[in-house]
Amino acid sequence: MKTANVLCIVVLSLLLVACSTRVPADDERDIAKPNIIFIMADDLAWADVGYNGAKFYETPNIDAMAREGMVFNRFYPAGPNCAPTRACIVTGMYTPRHKLYQPGGSGKGDVKLMRWQVPTRGEKDPAYNTFQSNHNTIDGKWVSIAETIKPAGYVTARIGKWHLGSDEQGFDLSTNDGVRPFSETDANFYSDIHVGRKITDRAIEFIEEHRDRPFMIYLNHWEVHGPLKAERSLVDKYTDKKKTFSGDDRFNWKPVFAAEVEVVDRSVGRIRATLAELGLDDNTLVIFTSDNGGAAGSTNNLPLHGAKGSLFEGGIRTACVAVWPGRIRPGSVTDTPVSGVDMMPTFAELARADLPTTQPVDGTSIVPLLTQQDGLGDRAIFWHYPLYLAGTSYNRVLPVYGTDENYWRGVPASAIMRGDWKLIHYYEYDSIVLFNLKTDPGEKNDLSETRPEIAAKLKAELAAWVKETGAPVPNKPNPKFAP
User: What's the pTM?
Assistant: First the structure.
């Protein structure tokens, strides 16, 4: 064999060895992507969990998450009630973009007490259709949180309450009750006393079926939304407890509501136990929260002001905890405001998936916050609510225009939060209120006149956001207005 040929063979062999032992680039490594489980209760108040001071309700599994993971003191699902919040989480967009502002899509209340013309339930005059307000539906054109991470290899499930229309938005599994295939025409399951167990059973089956690949589960409880119903044994437990309860007596605590809280808590415990049994807990991020604040009359939102349907803290702030062993430091707490629109970019970063380019994504990934690498910087979060929502004897916090009579839970308004400051602009009253949530979480002291420089800056920033998003601002006087 000639010397030249020998040299060629040696060089070729060395190249082959080098190629076979080359360290792959970061994006080529088979690094396990975390599983993601997002569990959401319905109408659970910020104060309804033990780690936030609840004494009558029992939430040992949620409280364990608080000890073993991160507590978000200021988590805001992005809407004051259920359908808008869910749309924000699923699409990563604020309400003016997906145009779902309220379940049913219309204002609720006495039309004679509304200052402006807006889409109103029971009002057939077309003049009141002054802007688009979707009825429990998001357009199928929007890229969902499931469609965002599926190209990165995730299998996805949406189990439980949906409230967003007939389009399944790309989830591989969709079921409202954990048993039947998804159908938006199905009746709701608020009164099914076994639905909490059934949707948890299906979530556990999904985990077991897909333990060998990355998965995401969006698990939505029907509890603790009314009508309140629960298994008799649980109701009896809290009926007996109430007889000897020596805690806060400012509220007529409801044993059936407490029973529904326990159903949700048991679900959290079962999900986490399954992950541990299968050895998946170290590679799974579990987040628990609620879709909005508590419904007044069912529970007590104190120390927060307002309730479900309100832009006060009692309507938009919820309990939230996250656990991810080895990544989230146990016992960590953050006062950083986090929004439901942050979930899509967060899950996309965890999945190493691309965010949609065909729609705005209003949120910010909170992965640096979860892993305590960094904060989220100085940013604002927003709300927009252009409709009316009547109150009851429990939750009338806003007056009829031109009167001192409280009638409304919600009126046309927008809100901005930046750091400790929160400003609400009421289009109904041509007025603003300003609160420092660090010193006044109960929103008792309006500082708009004593801190005019902050109020003016936030109001201008809010107005720019309203314009940029095309948020509808009611401005046509209601000819039927007769307070």
Answer: 0.92
